[in-house]
């Protein structure tokens, strides 16, 4: 494909996304790329940028905190197409600098937002209507395992039985599930139609609301197209105390792993305290979406100058 | 020896795993949206040639393997070991029949080949892609014999046997493709 075709595809996608949200009265916004705080998530590392000899700012790993501050301040429904940055995320599906589409809908739960994302996919990529499956049912149907009840020793045995060569010595329950998901299930997801996976184990809640069902589930979803993950969304956690606790747990995990421990973003916690309206939000990898549109397997094919040549 | 973390993995990197040297063939970074990142890596065991797949947590590290390839000149075989010399350092190294594998049937004295060394010990020896060898024995070609596809067996000076066209005679010098074990052409003598 020529450079012109490639650039045109991205430009066309952006135009369609903007038309889609203009029609629905969702407002396009911009938030800072350089912020004083960053995520505490132990699996995401941020680029630190020296502001002066004493202080660092951070390149944003996602616009989530800033957009929620806008929502709490009364912005109404908003979206943003923005660059995000994550240290070390390099591969056929990852570029350390990448483009994210993120949007928030007030009064939506995660199912309402999955429906809207499905409509966006049909409008921009001409996909067939998406299917949905919950996390528990997915594991039951593919591996005959109940992910909420199965003991870690059984999960480790399944990893060995499937000849996945990995050191399971210090592996926790969530990582074992993620190994099984990424090695055995993910390549088969979203082949005929896009697929939403929803209601995750509460230990994988991130910033989503936990519903006290039996068992309790995190109201979180992921979107898969042709074997790869494209989007992650939440019925958003709005409880400041619970959010503070989750961040503190992240900090403890980071301490345990001997990683850098970022301070908790007090602007974000304050916004939750002042009142984040009930809402759902989702982040989509735009580069991955373009990979599907152009039918390529390398993210470098859809980025003008990939990280090695930037 | 230096350590390499997963973000330095790339094809061609030689690393140690379970006390054996490996060559990385493919490295794929895998990361769930929220959760632990992994590297799925395909590696070839340089001692056995077997290819395996391993999954590493991102950030894990492996020791580098001191594996080098060098040009070596074949000197002679004493019946048990094949002796080589490094033409620049004049250092001599001997290789066993296991290490020689297929290469032993193609080498004649003075030939140059590629030897892979691990901590100074030979792992593999590769014969040149084409070699020029003399035929020491072959039956005269019988005109009209097409049942064997117009070829006949010929024994070469190194002991290897290849199939040659019927018109090739004993004492001739021919070129052979060592990867396929096939006759290529007559060599100009």
Protein model, in words:
The complex is a heterodimer of chains A (310) and B (189). By secondary structure, chain A is an alpha+beta fold. Chain A has nine helices and twelve strands. In chain A, β10 and β11 form a beta hairpin. In chain A, α5 (152-161) packs parallel to α6 and α7 runs antiparallel to α8 (266-275). Chain B has 189 residues and is mostly beta strands. Helices cover 2% and strands 51% of the residues of chain B. Chain B has one helix at residues 97-100, and strands at residues 3-5, 14-17, 20-30, 38-45, 51-57, 61-63, 67-77, 82-85, 92-95, 112-118, 121-126, 130-137, 151-156, 161-165, 173-177, 182-186. Chain B has a five-stranded antiparallel β-sheet with strand order 9-8-7-10-11. A five-stranded antiparallel β-sheet of chain B has the order 14-13-12-15-16, with no helix packed on it. In chain B, strands 2-3-4-5 form a four-stranded antiparallel β-sheet, with no helix packed on it. The longest helix of chain B is centred in the middle third of the chain and has 4 residues, at 97-100. Chain B is elongated and about 75 Å long. The interface between A and B is medium-sized, with 26 and 21 residues.
Sheet-strand content of chain A, in percent, reads: 15-25%
Count the DSSP helices of chain A: 9
Q: How would you characterize the largest beta sheet of chain A?
A: 9 strands, mixed
How would you spell out the order of helices and strands of chain A?
A: HEEEEHEEHEHHHEEEEHHEH
Could you tell me the mean pLDDT of chain A?
A: 95
Overall average residue pLDDT of chain B: 89
Largest interface: A-B, 26 and 21 residues
Report the oligomer. Answer: heterodimer
Overall radius of gyration of chain B: 22 Å
* Helix/strand/pairing category of chain A: alpha+beta
Order of strands, main sheet of chain B, comes to 9-8-7-10-11
The low-confidence parts of chain A are: none
Q: How far apart are the first and last residues' alpha carbons of chain B, in Å?
A: 49 Å
Strand and helix order of chain B = EEEEEEEEEHEEEEEEE
Shape category of chain A? globular
Helical coverage of chain B, percent range: under 10%
Instruction: Give a quick account of the main beta sheet of chain B: strands, pairing sense, barrel closure.
Output: 5 strands, antiparallel
């Amino acid at each position: 494909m020529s450079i012109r075709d490639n650039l045109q595809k991205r430009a066309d996608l952006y135009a369609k996304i903007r038309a889609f949200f203009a029609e629905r009265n969702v407002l396009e916004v911009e938030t800072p790329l350089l912020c004083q705080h960053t995520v505490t998530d132990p699996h995401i590392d941020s680029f630190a940028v020296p502001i002066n000899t004493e202080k660092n700012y951070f390149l944003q790993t996602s616009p989530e905190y800033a957009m929620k501050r806008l929502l709490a301040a009364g912005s109404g429904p908003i979206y943003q197409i923005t660059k995000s940055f994550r240290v070390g995320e390099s591969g056929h599906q990852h570029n350390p600098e990448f483009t994210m589409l993120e949007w928030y809908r007030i009064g939506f739960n995660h199912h309402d937002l999955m429906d809207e994302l499905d409509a966006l996919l049909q409008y921009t990529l001409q996909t067939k209507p998406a299917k949905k499956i919950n996390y528990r049912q997915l594991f039951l149907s593919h591996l005959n395992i109940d992910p909420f009840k199965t003991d870690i020793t059984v999960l480790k045995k399944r990893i060995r039985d499937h000849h996945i060569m990995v050191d399971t010595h210090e592996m926790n329950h969530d990582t074992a599930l993620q190994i099984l998901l990424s090695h055995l299930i993910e390549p088969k997801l979203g082949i005929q139609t896009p697929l939403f996976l929803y209601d995750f184990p509460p230990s994988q809640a991130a910033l989503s609301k936990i519903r006290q069902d039996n068992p309790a589930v995190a109201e979180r979803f992921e979107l898969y197209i042709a074997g790869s993950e494209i989007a992650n969304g939440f019925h958003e956690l709005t409880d400041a105390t619970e959010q503070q606790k989750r961040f503190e747990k992240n900090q403890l995990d980071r301490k345990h792993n001997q990683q850098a421990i970022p301070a908790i973003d007090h602007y974000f916690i304050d916004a939750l305290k002042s009142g984040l309206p009930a809402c759902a939000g989702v982040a989509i990898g735009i580069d991955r979406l373009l990979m599907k549109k152009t039918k390529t397997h390398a993210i470098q094919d859809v980025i003008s100058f990939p990280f090695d040549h930037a | 020896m230096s350590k390499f973390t997963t973000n330095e993995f790339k094809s061609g990197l030689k690393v140690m795993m379970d006390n054996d040297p490996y060559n990385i063939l493919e490295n794929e970074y895998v990361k769930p949206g929220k959760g632990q990142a992994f590297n799925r890596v395909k590696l070839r065991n340089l001692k056995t040639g077997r290819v395996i797949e391993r999954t590493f947590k991102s950030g894990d590290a492996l020791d580098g393997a001191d594996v080098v390839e060098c040009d070596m000149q074949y000197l002679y075989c004493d019946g048990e070991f094949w002796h080589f010399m490094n033409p620049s350092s004049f250092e001599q190294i001997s290789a066993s029949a296991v290490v020689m594998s297929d290469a032993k049937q193609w080498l004649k004295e003075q030939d140059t080949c590629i030897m892979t060394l691990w901590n100074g010990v030979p792992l593999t020896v590769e014969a040149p892609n084409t070699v020029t060898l003399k035929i020491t024995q072959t039956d005269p070609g019988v005109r009209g014999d097409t049942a064997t596809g117009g070829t006949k067996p010929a024994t070469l000076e190194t002991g290897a046997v290849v199939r040659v066209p019927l018109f090739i005679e004993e004492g001739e010098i021919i070129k052979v493709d060592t990867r396929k074990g096939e006759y290529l052409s007559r060599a100009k003598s």
